[in-house]
Each structure stands twice: as C-alpha cells, then as structure tokens.
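Lecture 7 notes. Example A: sequence first, then its structure tokens.
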Amino acid sequence: MKTKNIYIMYAIALLQGMVFYGPIATLYRQAKGVSVLQITIIESISLALCLLLEFPWGILADKIGYKKTLLICNILYFFSKIVFWQADGFFAFLLERIMLSVIIAGLSGVDTALLYLSCDNRQDCDDRYNSHRVFGIYNSLQTAGLMAAAFLFSLFVQDNYSLAAFLTVISYGIAALLTFALTETASPQTDRRTHSLIGLMKDTLTNKNLLFFLIGIALFNETHQTITVFLNQLQYVKCGLSPSAIGYIYILVTLFGLCGALSYRITQKLGNTRTATLLFSIAAISCALLAFTSHALLSVLAILALRISHSLFLQPF
C-alpha cells in the first residue's frame, strides 16, 4: 500500500535528522586538521556541485523512478557519514562533501514528490493521508530528530566527537535500510519536465528583478548556513562556552527556526517589501554584532536573530 510509504518516510526523516555531531561540526573538522578557510573552500565546491547536478539528477529521477533515486541517495548518504566519521584532513572531508552534493542534488524534490504521490488528496479522504498534513509531520520529524540528537549529545556525548559521528552513521544506516521497503510511485513524463525546467530558466535569466531577487536569497541562505552551522561554534568557543552548552544552544536555535509559521501575519501587516527590508536589516546587524563581540549572551542573541530572520524570510517569499 502507498500509505506504507508515508510511515517509512516519517521514520527516514526522523533518523536522518539525527545528526549527533551537528552542534560541533566545525570543531570536529578542526580536531581532524581542517582549517576554517579549508572548510569554506569545501562548502563553496559543494554548493557549486549541487547547482550543477540538480538538473541532470531531476531528469534521471524521472527515468529510473523515485524509489530507486531515494535508495541510491540514502545508501550514498550512509557511506558519506562513514567517510565523515573516518575522515582525517582536507581531502577526506572534501570527498565527504562531494558525496553530499551528489546526494542533495539527487534528493531535491524527490522525497516530497514520492510523499505527495503516496497521499490521497480527495476531499473525502482520511485526513491522516492528506498531503498538507503529511508534509507538516514529515518536516516536523526532521526537526525532532535534530533536536533529539543535540539533546543526547549535550547529555551524554559532549567531548567525544568520534562517538557523535559514529552514532550518526548508525542512524543513517537504519534510514538506508528502511528505503528498501518503499513502494514505487508513478512519476511525471521526463520530456515534459525537461521542457518546463528549460523554460523556467530562460524566464528567470531574462527577468532582471527576479534574477537579483534570487541572488539576494542565495546570499542570505549562504550567510545563514555558514554562520548557524559552522562559524557559530567558533564564536561559542571564543566566548568560553563548553561543548554541552553549545549543544543546548543548538537545540534553542533549532526551535526558533520553527517561527516561520508567524511570517504570514508579519507580511500581512508590513507588506512584502517592508518585511524583506526588515529581515535583511536584522540579519546584517546580527552579522556585524558577531564580528565585534566576544560576549556569550550577545553572540547567542545575534545568532538567534539571524536564524529567526531567515526562517521568517523563507515563508512569505
């Protein structure tokens, strides 16, 4: 039954959210001999690969089916976590990130497409299998897995970075095994999707306002990603915070990322332009504050403000 897919995808979302090394991802890399400059180089290469691979992966996913695509990507996901766990030095972590780029590009839209095709969206259907409700639960379980892993890290793992990476390997290995139990669903015609994507790219490149807007979003996303995932840990260490405290702050920042649901009310009152200006301004002030302070509370508040502004920005636009 297709409804089986929904529950399997729920479990996969929870397990793949459980990145136990999340609170100390940068510190882990530094402990393995990778500098901050090398981390940013790796991230730049990873982003470029994601952009290059997404279009061909989309075509391939339509040809081989969503289950096979998920299976390939989740198995690669599992192996990438093994590489991360055993990595030592720049090139090993670069390999892990290249693998991750392939995975992210391959999974882009495939998980939600399989979920949607597994739902029953008739008006008289059981509400448990309505796509809106299913997507809400799916996204919430990813966040729940992330917070559960961060809590366990703060409580038990703490300074044992290798254990955090190993536990993540176990979690992703179980997720890969669960993928075998999925049932294939029908995918749209490849030719139709290819033509629509090419048309969309042409429209985007010829619309100057839209192009600048997308560039702004990309820069905002990368700033948020770099600071809240990598540079935040260096800031916390500079402020004298312990690994346990960093884990609890990570949980708090993740929770505040759920505030995007409030964006509709803010946009309704201020309008799209004022809301975008306000959120970009908050993000810029937060970055400036982080550049000049070594105070723990101010640093945490600045990172929270950046996370909140990014979460609110993504929803209405």
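Example B, a different protein, same format:
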Amino acid sequence: IVTLLRALERHWFEPASLRDLAIVRIVIAGSALVLFRPDLDWMMMLAHAEPSTFRPLPILKLLMLPFGEWGVRPEPMFLRALWWLYLVAACGAVVGFATRLSLVALAWSATLIVAHNYSYGELHHPEAIFILAIWILACAPTGQALSLHALRRRIDRSLGAQRFEPIRPEDEQSELARWPLRVIQWLLVLAYLSAGLSKLWRGGLQWFNGYTLAYFLIQDGVRWGSAPALLLAPHPEVLALLSVGSIVIELTFALAVLVPRLAWPYVLAGTGLHIGIFVLQRATFFTFIVLYIVFIESLRRTWPRRLRAARPAPWTVIYDGLCPLCVRTMVVLDAFDLRRRLRAVDFERDWAAAAAAAPPLSPEQARAAIHLVGPDRRVYSGFAAFRVLTRLLPVLWPFLPLVYAPLSSTFGPRIYHLIATSRGRLSCRADTCTA
C-alpha cells in the first residue's frame, strides 16, 4: 500500500515545470480567444428568439441566479457584456495579467455562454472538456511563469538586490505544476473511454462490420453535403478498419498517460481521428486537439533525438549592472530567452569576463550602451544590439518590422542614445556601499 501511495504521489505531485504549465495556459487561453471565440451574432439571435423556445439548462439557472430569479433569461445587453468579458479575460490569461482572476472570469463567462447557447433545444458537448480545463487551470499556479505577474516579481527582486538575477532552475519547478496537467489528461482518457464504450454498448459487434459507419456517413454526408463521406460510404471494408481503429484509440488512450513514450503515437492518432471526423461528418472536436498540449512534458522528452534542434551557440550580453533600467531590460530579455541563448555579463561586477568576451571594449564604452557579442565574436552595440536580439528571441519577432522599418537605422540609434544618456545609475551596490 505504501508503494502504491508513493507511486500515486509521484504521478500527481512530482515536481514539474512551471513553464510547461504556463505554456498550456497560453495555448488553451489563446485558442479560446482565437479559435473558439463565441459567435456574438448567434448569441444575439438566440437572445431575440421566441420565449417559448428557451429551456434553460440547470447550470445556466445556477449561474444566472445572482442576476435575477431562478431560470431568468439573459438579456441581449447582458450577453454582449458577457462576450466582452470573455475576450478581456482571455487576453489577460494569455499574457498573465491577474492570471488566476482572468482564468476564473474566462471559465465563468465561457460556461455561461455555452449553457445559454444550448438552452434552446439543441444540445452538444464539444466545448465541455475545454471549459473544464480552463476551470482546472484557474486553480493551478499557472501565473508563476511566462506571465506579467512573474516578470514584475522578478524585476522587483532584481531591483531590490540591485543586481540582475537570472531565472534559477528551482524557480521553474513546483510540486503543484503537475496535477492540473494530469487531471486534464485523465479527463481526455475518460471522454474517449466513454465514447468507445458507448459505441460498443449501442452497436455491439455490428459496429465493426463497416456498414454501421457507412450508415452514419451517408446520413451526415447528405445532411452536411460532405462529398468525402459519400465517396467512402460504399467501401465497408475500409470503414471496418476505421471502426476498429477508432475503438482501439478510444479504449486504450490511457496508455498515453501511463506510458510517456506512447504520447506521440496517441496524440498523432487522436489528431488524425478528429480531423477525419470533421472531414467526413463535419463534427468539430478540435478542442481535443488543442488539449493535447497537456502532454507537453512527455512529447518533449520522447521527441526523436535526430529531430531535436541542436543547442544554439550562446550570445553574450554585456550590460551595466549599476543601471536600474539595464537591470529591468536584462530581466525581460531573460524571461523571453526560452532557449537560453543569452549569457549575461555585468561588466561592473566582472570586468574580466566582459573584456574576454569583447576585447576591444573599454569600460567607458560599456557604460554608454549595451553590447551583444555573437558566437563569431562580432560585437553589436546599442540599437544594433537590440536589432539582433529581436531576431534571436522569437517572442520579439512582432517588433522586427519596427526595428527594420525605413529610416529606423537613422532614428533608432538617436532614440537609443537619448534614452541611454538620460537613464539613472547607482554609485554603488547595496553590498558594496559604506555608511
């Protein structure tokens, strides 16, 4: 029993990467904002439908209770405000602004919107597991990495210590980072298991004969105008193989959780299954594909070595450790340096390392501007250094058109010089100042 309990503890609470958890937050919240954003026109059409068609789901009655009597129907203005809350909350969750509050607001608004959409006689379920995943993330420490909150905390810590403090390995690990991913993984397993058992319970062995699937393809092909479904329907031998394949994937998907090296085969098979269902039957279960991001740790660890990108050569950033603005800049660059391509050198603390990285550099030049030294020993200074950093760090790629715009070579160095000459500097550090 003790061994089993320890195995369960490792399964749920073994220290895991907070960055992985943050990436899951960004992907799911970003998908909610871009791919699965509610249709406001559809919401407004339902809001103006005949009152007799409104049959509120129990969850809608519960969520609307603070705004009126039991079973009150949402007003169009309320739904429009709810739609805007959804968008704002999704944006906040993506960037990590008030992360937990943003995720709670996103989950609450999404639940209410979906419950309202399905309170008019037509009921579906593709969004259910996706919304549950958002609720789960709202209860997890998803804002402790790759968020504005985490960035602000690191800046305050570095400024308080009067020195740049890079991300430490222990800062990116937590015992509470694994359980939310595990819960969502097992939700996927239960969803697939339910689908597989339902097919066997309702169809029995007839599900595998190919003709059962052909019946559904003809029905959906005619209903939705799916030409691929009608083309494939006359081939029961092929459909029999597809029927067996879908059942195998659904009933054994738990292996993707229990055996990490099988995550890739199941994620690829599940992706193919959902794409095939959409092509043939126009059923949109793309939320499942997005949720596969919760297997990020297993996918990364089992990615074929020959396909892994080689560790890039390091670039050295020489900065002024007595400049608060420079310290803030280094914290931001370190947060954006996801592949750890940058090596920071504070020339005021370690001039020997700075001189070894860029021999022609003098202390006066180092104080005047930030310097970037490439693997080929080429030195970039000031605005030119930030241009290169914009290319090196994918998070900064949206700024490439700005730093390479016409006349940027003329005005960029001038703006940089203006900022550099007006910035403040400390006369000494907290650990070197004397009373």
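Note on Example B: The two ends are 61 Å apart (CA to CA). The first strand starts at residue 16 and ends at 17.
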